[in-house]
# Entry
Amino acid sequence: MIEGVVPAIVTPFRGGAVDLGLLDAHLAWLAERGIRCVNAMGTTGEGPSLSLDERRAIVERVAAGPTDFIAGTGCTNLPETIEISRFALAAGARAVLVVPPTYYEAQNLLGWYDTLFDALPEDERVLLYHIPRFSHPIPDELIRELGARHGAMVAGIKDSSGDVAHTLDWLHEFPALTVASGDDTTAVQFGAGGGRAVITGTSNVLPEEVAAALAGDEAAQAYVAAVRTLAMSVPREAALKLLVSVVSGIGRSEVRPPLAELSPEQERHVTETFAELRSESHVGSR
# Structure
């Protein structure tokens, strides 16, 4: 259903509000670098921090942009998950990416997803989102049971466990599904194992380099991994937004609390270290 690099795009904020103009500029920059599909409102996109009205506005803007899109629509409560999923699919999303709900123990995760699938048109597509460090894990049996009950509506899975062996196991266990890796650091291994799609945060900044890594370029992989490590050494979303501005010339955007902005020391560290990594790299767009 999807192939190649799908950036999990950042959501730009300014003055506490979503800045749709900066979003437009980022989408155009990605499209110029070969990106054909993006994932809006996921983890990197601060989806859990967005209101339903903000999500609708982002969906409408991305739908009008130069790329296809997948919409992150998982909410803590089921009614809002259904509402924004319907809205995104009606607006033209290729699929919705739905993380399990947080907070409560997942006593009936099958029932939660069942109700969601039953509320959507049968010709639409859903990707399950496995990110166990933030949410309930997606067990194999859940994938099988949802597939048996809802057929082609279950289009695939994004695996953000960080365990490439687990992702490759799913790739081979569920050959009819799109299995996308959410890990920037293992794109070479994933591609070598037959993987064809990655949905990642660092591809906001290095879309061509992530694509090269997926195609088997070890030098590109080392560069991507170094930049990801740099972003993870400080508040990640703020670092990615800084780096998007550095590489693209687009105005810098803010994060929304509870996420934190970079301190002056952190900003200097990220900027200087990234400049060193770029100067040492011989791959991609530099």
In short: The chain has a mean pLDDT of 97. The CA atoms of residues 227 and 274 lie 7 Å apart.
